[in-house]
Each structure stands twice: as C-alpha cells, then as structure tokens.
Amino acid sequence: MEWLIPLLIVVVLVVIVGIYFWATYNSLVTLKVRVDEAWSDITVQLKRRADLIPNLIETVKGYAAHEKAVFENVAKARAESISATTPADAAAAENHMQSALRSIFAVAEAYPQLQASQNYLQLQAELVDTEDKIQASRRFYNGGVRELNTKIQVFPNNLIAKNLGFTQRDFFEVTDSAAIAEPPRVQF
Fold first, then answer.
1. Which of 29, 96, 126, 135 is most exposed, with minimal Cβ within 10 Å?
2. Which of 90, 89, 60 is nearest to 74 (CA)?
3. Which protein family is it in (predicted)?
4. pTM over 0.85
C-alpha cells in the first residue's frame, strides 16, 4: 500500500506532462496553419494586383505610347511580384512594384483625357482596393508570425518546439517602408 501513493503521483505527473505536450503541439500546429493561410492570402492579393497591372498598362499605353521605359519597369516589377515565394522576396518585389506604379501614375497625370476615362478610373479604384487588401493581409500574416515565433521562443515551449520541427518564420518586412506606407496616390 505504501508504493501506491508514489505510483499515483508519478502517474499524475506523467499525465500532466502528456497533456502539456499535447496542448503545446496542437497550439503550435494551429499557429503554423494560420501563418500559412495568411501567406496564402498575401499571394492571392499580389496575384490579383499582378492581373490588374496589364489592363492598367494597356489603358495608359494608348495615351502615352512614348513612355516605353515606364511600361517595361512595371512589367518587370509584375513578373518579380508573381515569382516571389518567400516574405523576403515578396518584400523586395513590393518595393519595385510601388516604384513602378508611382511612375505609371505620374505618366497618367500628364494626360487629362486619360484621367477622365471610365476604364482607367475603374482600374485605379480596383488597384487601390487591392493595395488596401495587401496591406491588411500583411498585417494578418505578421500577427500570425508574431504569435508563432513567440510561442516557439517562450520557455518551456522552446525546449520541445525545435524537436517537433517548428521553426520561426520571417516577417513580411519591406526595406523601404515609406514606399508602401499607403497605396499609390493619384491626383486629378
């Protein structure tokens, strides 16, 4: 009978540790899936923007055919944005895209008849909406990364997270934050 109490204590401790590992693993998996989902949302919005760009270029091209370098820069930035697979690649592509969009909008400002075009105005509105969605997706992704990275780093989770294959994720940080602080601005 003396051995029953120590055995019961050991069993209770094993159960508590087991529950802790189970709960920690499940919460890490949940956070990982949330971060993956958020990254997917970013890529969907970047793809949407990339799909809008050719329409915008064609609309502006009719008015400003001599601005070939601007259109080439936008096409390069679009291709770079589509091929980005990591947050670091996407951040670099984001900087180039913002710069390219600013230059195409600067060209558009020089053509008042273009600014009055319904097609151009609709594309402009869709692009601004997409930029807002990209910004919201980035915030959601970075929030998920923050939660996952914190969960991985805190004690005692840090002792088991690495052994379970969980690694920290990179934030979606843009090197030139002023370039993307707000959607491209167009003055009419």
1. 29
2. 60
3. Belongs to the LemA family.
4. no
